[in-house]
Amino acid sequence: MQGFPGGVPDPQQLQATMLAIEQACSLIQVHMNPAEAEKVLSSLHSSLMPYQACRFILETSLMPNARFQAAGAIGDAAIREWGILTDDNKRSLILYCLNYVMEHAGSPDGYVQSKVSAVAARLLKRGWLEFPDQEKGAIFFEVEQSIRGMHGPNRQFAGINFLETLVSEFSPSTASSMGLPKEFHDQCQLSLEVKFLKDFYCWAQAAVFNTADEILNSNVTIPEEKACSAALRLMLQILSWSFKPTLEHENLDARIKSGLRSDAINLRKFERSLVKPGSLWTDILISSAHTTWVLNFYTTLRQKYSYDTLWGDSPIAVSCRQLIVQLCSLAGAVFPNDNGDAQIEHFMHILSAVILWIEPPNVIAESIRNGGSESEFIDGCHVLLSVASLTSSSLFDNLLKSIRQYGTINLLSALTSEAVKSVLDNQNEEETWGSDALDILLETWNVILGEACADKSPMSADGALAASNLFKIIVESHLKAAADSAFEDSDDAEYFHVSVSKRDEQLALYALIARAAADTTIPFLEQLFSERFARLSQRDVENDPTRTLEELYWLLLITSHVLTDSGEGETLLIPEALQAGFTNVVEVAQHPVVTLSWSIINFSRQCLDPGIRGRYFSPRLMEAVIWFLARWVATYLVPLDVSREIDSVGRHGSQHSRKLLNSFAWDNNQGELVLDFVVLMSMVALTTYQGEIELQTLTCQKLLASVVRRKHTCAYVVQLVVDSFRPQHTTE
Q1: How much is the average pLDDT of 469-494?
Q2: Which of 52, 124, 211, 725 could form a disulfide with 228 if both were Cys (CB 3.0 to 4.6 A apart)?
Q3: Nearest to residue 542, comparing CAs of 616, 452, 460?
Q4: Residue ranges per structural domain of the chain
Q5: Which keywords appear in this protein's UniProt record, sorted alphabetically (predicted)?
Q6: pTM for the structure as a whole
């Protein structure tokens, strides 16, 4: 090839170099003398102008690993020697790598072709700011012809694979090191985005269109399916690009009024993001009904392979579904300025197709338990999270009502219920489809309920009922799991330890669901706790209290999350949902939060009796009690003075409920009694449970710390301690 660097090669030297590299690769494969073998390979990568030797190895060697090493050496040397290579040298290296990939597109050693393709992409980026656009266009013209299927499915796949590698090389998070400043990478990224990225998407789109009919009409797996899967992956990769923000006019007020919003924080937890390519992409993503075509293509494929329960995990199915999930995250100026109508219609089209992946939830879950694929279910959950992140809670709920007799929140409730059951049925397994789905679904609830709370707008009656029913299922399922675990001897049952952050995060999300329907869920918790508490006194009914104690342990944890927030490093306030609710409650004694609080405190007081403490209050149960009291005291016993805020918030009923919750702990000298009890209980924890480091740490750093947070409670406790040391006067 004219312009290929390295001078006139010596055939004998080329042969000797190839044999040395092949021998080194063989030694590494059999784990013999790896240090010496690595030294030989390193010498090739670091040698001056190794291009002719590497080319000889690529074209002559029968050993794939040797060819792989030769390709890598070309890339390393070219980046290192870029300054001394001529323009012809640089172009020749890039074109040689691309031609090699195309000529060997049908080779079974795909990893070698991928390596050569990666070298071509890396070198093209290195010269990106040097090469004129005309030269880049000439290179991409041949790639485009291959991607459009002009040279057969193998070259089509090779061309798509090259663009995948190129886009990855230009993305900041996956770019390889070149020893150049960040500004270089930023300029390359912006240039590719503005001048070529949309074209790449169109080429991939054309590849999918051109292969779709053959795939749908074929009864066997054909090479076109591999190319189609790769094209779908490339489209997904491009839509995952970090598009530069554009200064385009959007009627944000109109969009907000229609129920649209943009909240990408929750998507990032699952390595996803909003897709905001701007109005230049409207024609290929929105106006062309592109999303509808992709949805129909997947649905048709799904019907074709309905007999195959594992088809959902095939490359083409996975690629197509993930593209659909990403299309669900489209936002911003890519949609026309029509008060959000196009985006809402976009969501409805996607939801209408995706509903088949996740409904009915119980049937889908049973199919998965019987060996079916869970990937559709998981991707369907991702779609719901994406839609929730871009819509208000009311719009999210209404989207499904156009095709079903119930709202999206009802579906979300049913899905979450199945995920919870799956997790609890498979507690001994680290990663299950249920745990993955539950993480996504709980985050969706977090988005919905967080948005409703931020807008100070209560959830609809249907939504609140769905939340209430779901919370009851969650609690009953966990209580059963807690009781069933009562006699397990495993010390590794982290699921039921107070300090496990993953569990606490999950319980906090459960608590959000409970607060959305607090008027029913708080009395429900009080009923359950009272029943278990009463059961301990009826020893004739249950000889062994272990199961009941496990249930009480879990109820303490979930109730603590429902009644209080964690507030690490912050001043705790009574949760807004609890303050704003219960508008019909008049008497403090009838307030469900008050009733539940005193029920747990009365139970906790039992530990002061040595006999009861010995029978029931294990160190682990005491940890849960101390943990609950620490949060409860910080929230209800030492709250901020919020009287002014209360007077200016809400209706009369809401004001009354707020005042009740912010003052009930001190009514009728209750505060002093609670403080007395807290001090006594702390002494019990510190003196009776010697050696229980976690319990004593909780007592000192959480419970006692919360007591002394306010001046009036601190003064009372100090006086209490002083009085305890005064001599007792007796009368004769």
Answers
A1: 82
A2: 211
A3: 616
A4: 255-457, 458-487+494-725
A5: Cytoplasm, Nucleus, Protein transport, Transport
A6: 0.88
